[in-house]
C-alpha cells in the first residue's frame, strides 16, 4: 500500500494558504469571517494540524479569490 | 458571507478523478486497494457525495501518480 506523510503535505498546503493570505494583506480573522469559518480553525488549517474537508478548502479559495487548485500548488 | 455550491464543486472534482482513473485504465477497486481506501468510499467521492478530507485526496493523487493540484483542475 502507498505510504506518505499526510501531515507534511497538510503543512505545505497550510503555508501556501498563509502566503496567499499575507500577499493580499488579509488578516486571519478577516478571511475566517469572510468564509464563515472559526478563526481558530482556520489557524490550525494554516498550521497543517487539521485534516480539513474539501469544502473548507473550497471556501478558503473563494475567500482568497483564487482557483481551488492554486491552494494545492505546493 | 460567501455563498457557493459545494456539492457541485465536489461533483466536478469527482468527475476529474474518474477521468484521470479511466485514462490510466485503472478500475475503481484497483485504485481503492492501492491507496488503502474502501472502494465504496472512493465511489461516493467520485460521485461528489462525500465531503472527503484532504488526506483522502492526497492518497488518490498519489495512487493516480498525479500532483495534488491536478485533482482540482476543474
TrEMBL record, chains A, B:
One of its GO terms (cellular component) is cytosol. Pfam families: HTH_3. It comes from the Bacteria. GO terms for molecular function: DNA binding; DNA-binding transcription factor activity. Residues 17-71 form the HTH cro/C1-type domain. Keywords: DNA-binding. This is Helix-turn-helix domain-containing protein. SMART domains: HTH_XRE. PANTHER family: HTH-TYPE TRANSCRIPTIONAL REGULATOR, METHYLPHOSPHONATE SYNTHASE.
